[in-house]
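thread: overnight batch results

M.L. [08:02]
morning all. the overnight job finished for the chain we discussed friday. pasting input first so we're all looking at the same thing
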Amino acid sequence: MKVRGVIFDMDGTLLDTMERIALVMNTVLERRSLPVHEMVKYRRFVGDGIRTLVEKALPEGRRDEVTVAQVIAEVKVLYDGERLKGTPAYPGIPELLEELHRRRLPKAILSNKEEKFTRAHAEIDLASFTFDPIVGARPDLPLKPAPDGAFLIARTWGIPPAGILFVGDMPADVLTARAAGMPCAAALWGFSDREDLVAAGATVFIEHPLDVVGLL
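M.L. [08:03]
and the structure it wrote out:
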């Protein structure tokens, strides 16, 4: 079926948020006199929501519910200030989004980042482009790889899932697309290794954002 719309993951696909995420998490850890992590380790911590990020970043003996809840709250406060400094889009993303606009293809974001932060990044860092809807982590939807958010976007557009291309860089994105019956393009410029994407079932890989154009 011809592609009639495109869903994007945000972190690691549209925006290079890794440095900001690592900075915020390490700052919170330092304030608690806990060990910090090199940025490369955060590639294994992100993608499944803030709770998973915090649990993986904390030492094993400090992952009790009270500490996790407190750290999540601290991370949210600090991130809320950091996001205002702006986060760069990956090279080629603006040109891809412009091409999708030229072709009149609808664009959406589906992220496991809290929805208010997902929206804020879109409004600040991708302000020249329209995404509708923008769906982030929220109480009424399970996180990816559950397909609920993808189905919500498909219903909003009135487009069968098979006509929607899902572009993401994480195993959760690949699994979401498969569960939703959407074709998936696995982005190799993001936070995951090719091997992890293959293990999730990815079969189509893109090395540069403009490679998406060849899949439309």
